[in-house]
From TrEMBL:
Keywords: Membrane, Transmembrane, Transmembrane helix
Protein name: Uncharacterized protein
Glycoprotein among keywords: no
Domain of life: Eukaryota
Organism: Stentor coeruleus
Residues annotated as transmembrane: 54-74, 114-133, 148-169, 189-212, 233-251, 257-278, 290-310, 316-336, 642-663
Keyword Membrane on entry: yes
Length: 808
């Protein structure tokens, strides 16, 4: 096989490949997200137990005591401060570093901290490597890594303080003033390097814990302490805590007032952000996290005043009185903010965070009577900023569609918007989590099963071509005058690997898609012509033939829309054709290149102008219920310009972005038809209709009266007549399809009554004879079924004329 042929195969796959349209994360991101999903346990959809709530409050209380110990230090220069020395010691003993110093285990504590973070980093790296190479991951390894991550989260501030103290005294080599006991924290150059390295690791792990250990979906989030709209406020809070610890280590002992003044400023900002943005869906969580910063502000304020008036009693009594009053007032401030949140409604158009706050109550506590209105508000906001809508908003919208409306098909369409807005790793992860849940549900729907089947078949064919290329490459090299043995061995090895892969994939897909004829046929041919196993090939062909008979029987009983045998076209909302399967190409007797140059409107009758970019885009933006755009017998125009009578189903689906899925089912009708305008001028015709013209020319542009020698007004009035053309009796039927404010007028010709009865099912029709011969006395007969052109009840665009017409 030459290189030109190889390039041709690659180019063909690139131009018309369903796999190219599928939503795919970069490999590293997919592995990273999969690892995070296995490590972090999100609490959003849980009913929080009393024990869990108690542990949550206890954790925050310990953090409060720890931060108090670096504000109310034992060496604060105020008169009478040493009288409460035991109180300051109790506060100090809430910290890991102080406990280790007082118990003379500081060196063990230092090396234990080093070991803890290095071990955690190694375990994370090992898990990532196992994920990369798709190796089984031991459950115990995942379990212990989870526990270490929890410990790192709980002890984050304590570990950071210890590492900063080691860094300070390894660098400065000065006397330690922060503890009541004299110890050495000097670890030399090794201590400096290790402290810097571990601080970086600590910050990375803290970033992961904050960014990925929560769920942004609103469903049941009012019960959780971890559900929130964004992690940005929490990151600011952690940064403020790190800054507080850093200032404590380096300036607190020398600049008492400056240190506390800085803390008042930065913690006021953090507390205000919690109150203003309300990042957590649970109001208690917002209050608890902000109270932490309020406590720091009150403590620093009292310590500064106490320093200037030189009174320890003022500091203690002030804290006991002012702090409870402050948090009570703060609670009312936050509730006032929540109750008055709707004043932001006029700004909601410009700020997605403000819009989420306005909509939060609707999303957290959806009521049946306002669900439709909530959907409209979400949809309107998305449409107004469709090109720059943040990904987090699409996650909120899609999760509402999925969990509240229980409409997974609409959810995946709203999630995969073709937005140009840049997204963060955090937003991508939240999208990944939601998409996993939606995909599990949507994989059961017929349209997505069909797309998955086609995609997997493409993958199989691609591997088959790759295997054949390796064979031809080997044969090409072996006929050379002096083939290099090592090259031949490599080619044989490559061929064996490809052959092993394709055998494994064939077996897997035939088991997965047991109702697929194309997989069985492909596997049978592979076994027969490549492996030479005639017996197995015969068995597979027998299965295929039995399956084909069963499906033909099933098609007779049911209308199989999502069959792999049906012609299929995928388009963008612009109408540009981006994918065609082999069946539509056979129907048109054209290649995928022909379709790639066409707009979808060009393969439908010109009188039907309902596939423009404006109309398709409008449906995509406005639909809040069904994803079915059309289901009607409108037919298509083939590459030669002939009208093929067919049933067309058009659905809005989503791969990497929303696309339209056109499924064509040619009608097996024994008739010839034309489409007319209101004056009887022929606009489109089926392939054999030209033969009814006297000279056999193209009948388009001719009046139906001229071609069939009939009175068009009589035909419209009677709906059905009999005529004689070329000595044959022809049954003529007139039908009209309403399409909003336009109509498709169809005239069909039948050669026998049996063909009329067979083809015009589901319609009561009477024929009036206008033949001036013996057939004129034929009795008017009644057809027992309804008109073929009746549309599906779910059709959105087309409303067929369902009246029973009788001759006058």
């Amino acid at each position: 096989m030459n290189k030109a042929f190889e390039l041709e195969l690659v180019e063909e796959e690139h131009q018309n490949s369903l796999q190219k349209l599928e939503s795919k994360l970069p490999k590293w991101k997919k592995i990273f997200f999969s690892l995070l999903n296995s490590l972090y346990h999100r609490h959003l959809q849980e009913n929080i137990s009393s024990l869990h709530s108690m542990l949550y409050y206890l954790q925050n209380f310990i953090a409060l005591i720890q931060i108090a110990s670096i504000i109310w230090t034992y060496d604060f220069p105020i008169q009478g401060w040493n009288d409460y020395r035991n109180l300051w010691k109790v506060l100090m003993y809430s910290r890991l570093d102080a406990i280790c110093v007082e118990s003379s285990f500081i060196q063990n504590c230092i090396y234990g901290t080093y070991s803890f973070y290095l071990a955690l980093l190694f375990m994370l790296f090992l898990l990532f490597i196992l994920k990369v190479f798709k190796k089984p991951i031991p459950e115990k390894l995942t379990f212990f890594t989870k526990k270490l991550l929890v410990l790192a989260s709980v002890g984050n501030n304590s570990f950071f303080l210890l590492l900063m103290m080691i860094l300070k005294y390894s660098w400065q080599k000065t006397t330690i003033n922060e503890y009541t006991k004299t110890v050495s924290l000097d670890q030399g150059i090794f201590g400096i390097l290790m402290s810097i390295l571990l601080i970086i690791i600590l910050i990375f792990i803290c970033y992961c814990n904050i960014t990925f250990n929560y769920d942004t979906k609103h469903i049941n989030a009012h019960k959780s302490y971890y559900g929130k709209s964004t992690s940005k406020i929490t990151k600011v809070s952690i940064l403020v805590n790190y800054s507080t610890i850093t200032f404590y280590c380096f300036i607190s002992s020398s600049y008492y007032i400056l240190y506390r003044g800085i803390l008042i400023i930065i913690h006021s900002i953090s507390a205000g952000m919690y109150c203003y943005y309300l990042p957590f869906y649970n109001i208690k969580a917002n209050f608890i996290h902000s109270v932490f910063h309020v406590f720091v502000v009150i403590s620093c304020f009292l310590s500064i005043i106490g320093y200037y008036i030189n009174s320890t009693v003022f500091c203690i009594l002030g804290l006991l009185l002012l702090f409870p009053i402050s948090i009570a007032l703060w609670f009312f401030v936050m509730n006032y903010r929540v109750n008055k949140i709707r004043i932001l409604e006029k700004y909601a158009k410009e700020n997605v965070k403000s819009f989420e706050l306005v909509m939060r109550d609707r999303l957290l506590n959806p009521k049946i009577e306002v669900i439709d209105n909530t959907l409209k508000l979400l949809n309107n906001y998305q449409n107004k900023s469709i090109d720059h809508v943040p990904k987090m908003f699409t996650v909120w919208f899609a999760s509402f569609c999925f969990y509240v409306c229980m409409n997974e098909k609409l959810a995946i369409v709203k999630l995969n918007t073709d937005s140009k807005a840049e997204s963060s790793l955090e937003e991508d992860f939240q999208e990944y989590l939601l998409k996993r849940e939606i995909t599990k549900s949507i994989s059961k729907s017929e349209e997505y099963q069909l797309l998955s089947k086609i995609s997997q078949f493409e993958k199989l064919k691609k591997l088959d071509k790759k295997t054949l290329i390796s064979v031809f490459t080997f044969l090409r090299n072996i006929v050379l005058k002096d083939p290099i043995q090592s090259n031949l061995e490599d080619l044989i090895k490559k061929f064996k690997n490809n052959l092993k892969k394709i055998m494994k994939l064939n077996t897997k897909l035939t088991i997965r898609f047991q109702d697929s004829i194309m997989f069985l046929e492909f596997y049978a041919n592979f076994v027969d012509f490549i492996l030479g196993d005639k017996e197995k090939a015969f068995s597979l062909n027998s299965r295929k033939n039995n399956l084909k008979k069963y499906q033909e029987f099933k098609d007779g009983k049911q209308n199989q829309i999502f069959s792999e045998e049906n012609p299929l076209i995928l388009t963008k909302n612009t109408g540009k054709i981006i994918y065609t399967n082999t069946h539509i190409e056979k129907l048109f007797k054209s290649s995928s290149v022909y379709f790639s140059e066409q707009h979808i409107q060009s393969i439908f009758p010109k009188s039907l102008q309902y596939f423009s970019h404006k109309q398709l885009k409008s449906f995509e933006n406005k639909t809040l219920d069904s994803i079915k755009y059309l289901d009607a017998n409108i037919g298509i125009i083939d590459s030669k310009g002939y009208w093929i009578e067919a049933s067309i189903s058009v659905l809005l689906v989503s791969l990497s972005y929303p696309i339209y899925m056109f499924i064509c089912r040619p009608l097996n009708l024994q008739r010839q038809s034309v489409i007319l305008d209101k004056n009887g001028i022929i606009l489109e015709r089926t392939e054999e209709f030209d033969s009814y013209n006297e000279d056999g020319l193209d009948v388009r542009g001719f009046n139906i009266e001229h071609v069939l020698k009939i009175n068009f007004k009589d035909l419209r009035r009677n709906k059905n007549i009999e005529i004689v053309l070329k000595s044959d009796i022809i049954f003529v039927m007139y039908n009209k399809i309403k399409v909003f404010d336009s109509k498709i007028r169809v005239v069909s010709l039948y050669k026998t009554e049996e063909s009329v009865i067979e083809n015009e099912k589901n319609s009561n029709v009477k024929f009036v004879s206008c033949v001036k011969n013996k057939e004129k006395e034929r009795k008017i007969y009644l057809l027992e079924s309804k008109n073929t052109f009746k549309t599906n009840e779910e059709t959105l665009l087309f409303d067929m004329n369902k009246k029973n017409h009788s001759p006058k």
